[in-house]
Amino acid sequence: AQKKYTIVIDAGHGGKDPGNLGNGYKEKNIALKVALSVGNELKKNKDIKVLYTRDKDVFIDLWKRGAIANEAKADLFVSIHCDSHTSNAYGAGTFVLGLRGNRKNLEIAKRENASILLEDNYKDRYKGFDPNSAESMIGLSLLQEENLDKSLSIASLIQNNFAFKLKRNDRKVKQDNFQVLRETIMPSVLVELGFLTNKNEGKYLNSNKGQDQMATAIADAVENYISNLKINTVVDNVVEGNVPNGIEFKVQIASGKNKLATKSYNFKGLLNVERIKVGSFYKYYYGKTSDFKEAKIAEGEANRKGFKTAFIVAFKDGKNIPVGEALKLQ
Description:
Structural class: alpha/beta
Oligomer: single chain
Shape: elongated
Number of helices: 10
């Protein structure tokens, strides 16, 4: 939880590639200004390290953008673009890698892993790990699923900020086969800020106000995402079976008769949601921990995501008990 999280911000296009030129605006310039603004905001957070694929008007190959993030062992990759259309379409959207792209992405992950074989003393360092083994393939496949889940989580946080905080037309979170996302081996999203071909939206995105607002929305989402990761890192470090006095705290965020997949996109970006069936109802919990202070942090996080009625519950050896009694036992 004390680690530094590396975020790679990718301004689309650049140099000889202007991107789309709707209404005479240049996508490459707007994307760069927003990317730099996002980075400047994130740099204020001591837990975040920011890298750019470009910080000026230069052309960077698509494969190189992904390579920059991979080599940095980044925790998140955010690519920023502006959209265009022959109609008067408008609104902001966020994309994650589609299933077709995931197959290519898996090959890149395999290739990145294979570089282990080129390292000196790799057998000692990695204790005989073989990147070509069936076990490592299964591990990489599971990592792809985890990355997709986390990509959907950050995408939903960004999109919610666009739609609800800035009141932009919501074009939703979608999956697509973008090359720049295929080249990365960590959670990744591509943001379409809006349509330069729409007169009003193009004017907004070309303005300092519009760029600042969109950048703040993205940066705020990234910080929430990192906060989520930190909470769940603490939770994951509680070893099952080694809970002090058998006491655990959780935050109940929802209950009902509907059985929902415990994916982050069903819970406004919250990760590691737990579902337990009680009679004919399903209860959904977040932030399992043996530390009441951590439970309070998780409760606050759930509140900020919109779960205003979330509350802390306590368990001893898996049995629900009053929170006051749990605190006394501890």
